[in-house]
Amino acid sequence: MDLNIMSFENVTFTYMPDNESVRPAVEGLSFSIKQGEWIALVGHNGSGKSTIAKLMNGLLFPQSGTVTAMDQKMSEESLWEIRSQMGMVFQNPDNQFVGATVQDDVAFALENNGVPHAEMVQRVHESLRQVKMEEYLNHEPHHLSGGQKQRVAIAGALALRPRLLILDEATSMLDPQGRMEVIETIRELREATGLTVISITHDLEEAALADRILVMNAGHKQVEGTPEDVFFAGNKLTELGLDLPFAMRMSKLLTEAGVQLSNEHMSEDRLVEDLWTFYSKK
Ligand SMILES: Nc1ncnc2c1ncn2[C@@H]1O[C@H](COP(=O)(O)OP(=O)(O)OP(=O)(O)O)[C@@H](O)[C@H]1O
């Protein structure tokens, strides 16, 4: 049977339970994530994404409904066991460094967890290799780019061998190059290890690579489906204040201008391929 990595069943959380005029940050939310899936959680500001992240790692507990992680109900008792199987990477690359060098940084949590020295060295190398940062082992963090810093943060999480990696707006402070590096790292990691990934993001280009997208609006799940399902319901996203990926917007404009594409494309590569075909027939 598939391991249930994370599920919410009818979860409601409000920051001000005594004030009935304040709407819950998350209301009646249900979803379930299986081992090996990549889920993107998207929604505009205030839609409930950060609250969901906090409910996922037990920083908050719902007033009603159930959060289950790694097949265990989230509670004060199960919290530490659950967290030990979950890696998190946050928004600001500069707030996450604790070591003086890249390898010290990745080793930090391992040391705290009492991992023996020889195994620690091996895990530090292995996880830095997975994010292609092994050659930066002895570099000081402030000399790295934003994308490289986030890749080291991912390595730090991977060194603990989590079942689930949660990226909480991990690309939102990066320049386009840094974003691409991190997204590519996640894509490769998933291919190589089958790691389960939840990425909380404003970036629909990033979400387009996920297996499934969950769109939040005002504390409710508005749409859920594959990137195709979600993006082809295009107007709904625009109404929720979310931009379609660039390639889809471009596809729409080209179609309106009379260019006969085979489809609306989610990726720039496929759009370019289609345009080659279109113009080579002319
Ligand atoms: N600590 C808090 N106390 C009171 N209300 C809060 C608190 N944190 C969030 N909220 C409210 O809960 C709702 C959901 O906020 P949340 O931060 O989860 O959304 P978000 O989608 O992560 O937004 P953003 O992208 O801006 O971080 C919003 O109405 C917000 O104002």
UniProtKB/TrEMBL annotation:
Main location: membrane
GO molecular function, a single term: ATPase-coupled transmembrane transporter activity
Mode of membrane association: Peripheral membrane protein
GO cellular component, one term: ATP-binding cassette (ABC) transporter complex
Family: Belongs to the ABC transporter superfamily.
NCBIfam families: ECF_ATPase_1, PRK13635.1, PRK13648.1
Protein name from the UniProt record: Energy-coupling factor transporter ATP-binding protein EcfA1
Organism: Planococcus massiliensis
